Fold:
Amino acid sequence: MIIAIDTGGTKTLVTSFGRNGQLSTKQVKFPTPQNQNEYIKVLRGVLKELFGNKKIDMVVVAVPGIVENNIAVRCPNLPLWHNFDIKVGLSELLGQTPVFVENDAKLAGLGETRQLKHIPPQSLYLTISTGIGSGIITDGHINKALANSEAGHILVEYDGKNQEWEAFASGKAIRNFYGKYASEIKNKRTWNQIADRISRGFLAVIPTLQPDVIIVGGSIGTYFKKYSKQLKKILKKKLPKIIKLPKIIRAKYPELAVIYGCYYYALDNRTAEKN
Structure:
């Protein structure tokens, strides 16, 4: 059994996969504690509740920040999380069970890319939710050389000043500006404005990475159809002529992409251990 833990800036989802790769219907979601010790305490309780004494083969924990050597070095939307060793925190409960920690957007990109009919040479996954995270997937695997890339923090011009992309285009920024959650926005003009906000970052990352496919997930990704036509229209108009507009698609599982990524990451690490 593989345990998948999707830790977001606001909520955490815990579930598992059986040996046949089937996603369990048993899932627990809880608000992500800002305090490291409280997170470990709550997570331990959830793991005991869901799995008891069942044999666990591997655990993969996704976190919304920079990860180095399985340590959550920095998580912008969880400001108290610095050099957080989740593996050590769970060791008393899990013993020698392998625990891997990786960035959530990278895992989401892995999960979504591996479920495409044809795996492209390079795909870019963007999760637009509390913040904006990015995952660069090369030949179906997380690109280790670019593993610490953070597209949401690129500086782009908006509203007359240089800002981080996620400061004005993330789900949190959209909610703060319009006073509504994405699910409550019905006005087409508003969605066109949101498309413009999102396009600013796309115009910076596309010429640099030139991905074959861009996959959009997260809470704003759920409503991709609301702004996709306008977004593509803006990009076609503004991208340099020598830069090809990549295929842009909605994530197959906007809310579960990270969970599936945890599963594929576990499989990749299991293979690496055998070799």
